[in-house]
Amino acid sequence: MLKLLIVDDEQIEREGLQVILQKAFPDIQIHQAKNGKIAVQTAAELKPDLVMMDIQMPGMNGLEAIQQIKSTNPFIKFVMITAFDMFDYARQAIKLGVKDYLLKPSRVSEIEETVGKVLKEITEERRSLEVLEKTLPLVETDVVTQLLFDHVHEVHLDMLVNMLDISSTDEPFVMSILFPKGEENLYSLVKEKVRKSASGWVGALYGQQLPIIAFQKPGCSFRSQAASLAKDILSLKNVSSSDGWFIGIGNVCQSLNHVRQSYQESLIATMDTSLPVKYRFYSDVPLLGSTEDKPRSKQREKQFFDEIRLGKWDEVHKNVIEMIQRCANEGADLLQTQQRVLELLWVATRVMNEMGVETETPLFSYQSQDYRQLRSESEHLLKQMRTSYEAHYEQLEADTIHQIKQYIVKHSHEDISLEALGRKVGLSPIYISKMFKEKLGVNYIDFLTECRIEKAKKLMADPEKSLKEITFEVGYHEPNYFSKVFKKMVALSPTEYRKAVLGRKG
Question: Strand, coil or helix: what is 428?
């Protein structure tokens, strides 16, 4: 049931409006407030869908009340009521997002028409949100995939984050869950557990790995929150098949723009799954190998993983050998250096698995007796990994990217996710994201957006179609979001673009 709040310092005005509106719209719930201060309090408790606000009231006037109400609930809509048709009031009201205004006294038909129009808009938005809620799981998975393995255009990230149930904070961190073989069916239970905790977004399950972007809650320490969530997730497993379950937890980072570093840390934290406690923080992983400063070491790690993703195997080989040489020059313990190399190669296979490349877990066949043997054995393992990588790419059909493009163009009006595309062509979501960047120079969200905007531009040439119809026809569920994306892509609002197109036709 829609809720409406009438605000006016004159009781006869409030009562009169309620009688008119209750008769015209019997299904709405109507409340009253006699001044601006009470209106702010009532709106906070009631959360009305629509407020009819008198402007001239003693104490807090209507515009001040609207401003305060919108600061805590920006989705409430307002109709302004005034006895004065004053330009300054109208200008301020427009800035505050007031939908319409009524002059005192107004005819009954004018009141019914004005309020009916806004109520219809609210009802349509509710329907759009219901559709949106059904797509949220897809949105959540795609946001995680794009943040960890690609990039999201700023307009998309802002809007997609706003659509999700979980509020993001400036303190995200990543948890990587390793599933044992045969336990992948628990994915949906893990997702439900994270959703109930209201603390994070769950990504796509690829192989036996599942990434989660979590957000530190105010007043809760990072370690206690992450440990609690890890224990909750691990409680879902079958005790009899506990082997293979493990959760790595990356450090808290400054913002979503830096979350890939936390993801890589979470992978490193999963290296030793034989620990009695089946989760580990990256900060608890002992530093091995080189004595170089930690920030520089982290930068090298990130560069190494990016080179694996991009298939720059000559660079990968060079960096591993340089690291071994660096440790040798510093007089580092040989066994610790071998462990460090193994850690890098082990996590590299995880990165390859993200892209659908199957490769054996790298293991040294013996303990190196000197640095020369360590270099030789490391080169052998790198060669095996490179062979697996290149064989995988050779097996892919040359027209895979063309198939995906054609599918997106044809189905751009639908809710297409990376997971759905992956199922269509038998590839992992991360690999598809990587292909887009390599082959087309854009990520899949940007390509999908371009398809939708191009279709919208063609439809705007038809004067019979409303902008709202076009919004839904090209695959968007919310007209304001469509307008924002369109203006970002075209540098004109949909209305401005349509006027230009129809003006040229005339």
Answer: coil
The per-residue pLDDT for range 421-436, each reduced to its tens digit, is: 877 777 777 777 777 7
Other C-beta atoms closer than 10 Å to the C-beta of 34 total 16
pLDDT of 163 > 70? The answer is no
pLDDT, tens digit, for every residue of 222-249?
999 999 999 988 887 654 445 678 899 9
Q: What distance in Å separates the CA atoms of residue 19 and residue 15, rounded to the nearest whole number?
A: 6
Of residues 134, 213, 135, 212, the one with CA closest to residue 168? 213
Q: Distance between CA 36 and CA 77 in Å, rounded?
A: 16
Q: What is the pLDDT of residue 153?
A: 47
Calpha distance 355→349 (Å, rounded) = 10
- Full-prediction pTM beyond 0.85? no
Supply the DSSP string of 69-134, one letter for each residue: HHHH-TT-EEEEEESS--HHHHHHHHHTT--EEEESS--HHHHHHHHHHHHHHHHHHHHHHHHHHH
141, 204 Cβ separation under 8 angstroms: yes
The structure tokens 């659509």 sit at 163
Query: Which amino acid type is present at position 62?
Result: G
Nearest to 271 by CA among 177, 362, 347: 347
Which residues are CB-neighbours of 283 under 8 A, at least 6 positions away? Answer: 251
30 by DSSP, 3-state: which?
Answer: strand
Q: CA Rg, the chain, in Å?
A: 29
**Angle subtended at Cα 302 by Cα 300 and Cα 305, rounded to the nearest 5 degrees:** 110
Tokens read off for 112: 């019914």
For 31, the 3-state DSSP assignment is strand
Strands 77-82 and 50-54: parallel
For residue 4, what are the contacts with CB-CB under 8 A and spacing of at least 6?
A: 21, 28, 29, 30, 31, 48, 49, 50, 51, 52, 115
Report whether 358 contacts 388 (CB < 8 A): yes
